[in-house]
Amino acid sequence: MPLLTTPALPPGALAGHHQPDLDAGDLFLRPWRPEDRPAVLAAYADPDIRRWHCRAMTDDEARDWIDTWPRRWRQETGAGWAITDGTGVLGQISLRAVDLPEAQAEVSYWVLPAARGRRVATHALTALTAFGFDRLGLHRIWVRHSTANLASCRVAERAGLTAEGTHRAAARHTDGWHDMHVHARLRTDTRPAPPPRMRR
User: Fold this and answer.
1) Was domain 22-186 assigned CATH 3.60.15.10?
2) What is the domain partition of the chain in residue ranges?
3) Helix 120-131 with 150-158: angle, nearest 10 deg
4) What is the rounded distance in angstroms from the CA atom of residue 164 to the CA atom of residue 160?
5) Angstrom distance (rounded) from CA 49 to CA 91
6) What are the distances in angstroms from CA 133 to CA 57, 92, 116, 160?
7) Tens of pLDDT along the chain (200 residues)?
């Protein structure tokens, strides 16, 4: 049956352009490369990343994970970036559930242990949110994380994503069902102040 609303964003909002690098102050975000595979393997061997993202990876799976991102961009279902400082990969950030008709996307991020405590994820999320609103034309960008993941909560708050509520027992982790916090920003929200310079 036909919808009574028109899509908020037309097809081609992503696929009609090359995936860009994004400036995040002292950091930049770039599309994943095959040579980034050791960083992805290291991430999914880290206990904290495994705890919150609930997955592990073999070498072949890390290669396939990297290979999926260009296809997801072309299919307009997702977009992933490596967070770098010019010397190596510090983490990842992605739009993992792009919905062009509704002009919204969910964000996912992780940071490698050696780069934690420097607000890497906050700077990356601020840059990605600006890109999503200003260049993609998204209406809503949101993050969902376990209520036990206090670090992720701080990242979302510092990047200006408002806490909207709790989804009860909404995600299964290795230790059982977790309540999930939801944070979001709308394009019409007041822009937050830029985050402090990244810690060295």
Assistant:
1) no
2) 22-186
3) 50
4) 12
5) 11
6) 32, 19, 27, 13
7) 777 889 999 999 999 999 999 999 899 999 999 999 999 999 999 999 999 999 999 999 999 999 999 999 999 999 999 999 988 999 999 999 999 999 999 999 999 999 999 999 999 999 999 999 999 999 999 999 999 999 999 999 999 999 999 999 999 999 999 999 999 999 999 887 777 665 55
